Amino acid sequence: MTGSQTSFAARLAEAGATRPGLCVGIDPHPGLLSAWGLRDDAAGLDRFARTVVEALADRVAVLKPQSAFFERHGSRGVAVLETVIAEARSAGALVLVDAKRGDIGSTVAAYADAYLDPASPLAGDAVTASPYLGFGSLEPMFELAARHGKGVFVLALTSNPEGAAVQRAVAADGRTVAGTILDELAARNAGATPFGSLGAVVGATAAGGIGHDLAKVNGPLLAPGLGAQGGRPEDLTDLFGSALPLVLPAYSREILQTGPSVDALRASADTVWRSCASVLSRSA
Question: In what residue span(s) does the Orotidine 5'-phosphate decarboxylase domain sit (predicted)?
């Protein structure tokens, strides 16, 4: 991080102190567009995404546009994503671009430029990343994030059941693959205050527990899988334990399916946040 620039972690902590510490996905998949009475084209995409921004960007801590649902509409869809990122940030929300990028060398450096360099129209406040070409392959992302006060959320234990075959596999040193990733994040976040800007994605539906002291990660823990995917706020206590203060609960369909009414979207976000806050407050 350069100069007096505020870290992503500090901005996230501030956002969580002044508005609901909730992450809401912007996932305009065809079924939701249809349910909202919109066409599955760039115009429908634009109406959907900007309605979510209008409803929630000045109310919740984080908005998380899923890049794939914009990319499927080609250059016009990517243009909508650029607009959504800019408008959401202008309204005060932090933007986590859910791109799950991961590669090696100059390619991952290019992904870092796209999603973390302030000069890029696709740059949010943070990006999701895949470590499955080796945790160290993400170094260009980590370096650029630190330079510009951005965040990176690394996949560790995801909410899809298929992920366990890889993520819970045991490496030669006896640690699970997920445990290795969490240990790497902990090492990089060590000593950071209020916590580090490198986070982990740990699904709220991760069955069988974590088997890892997540508090040691000392970074934000994005918890997708809540709501429509079956995760419940009350599950968070057993899953995250002493790391509960670091949890960023993430909802998508549970809230988005109440649109296109702006008031209904706001009411739904308020409802799920009350459920989460009653759990998270017990850790205070």
Answer: 21-268
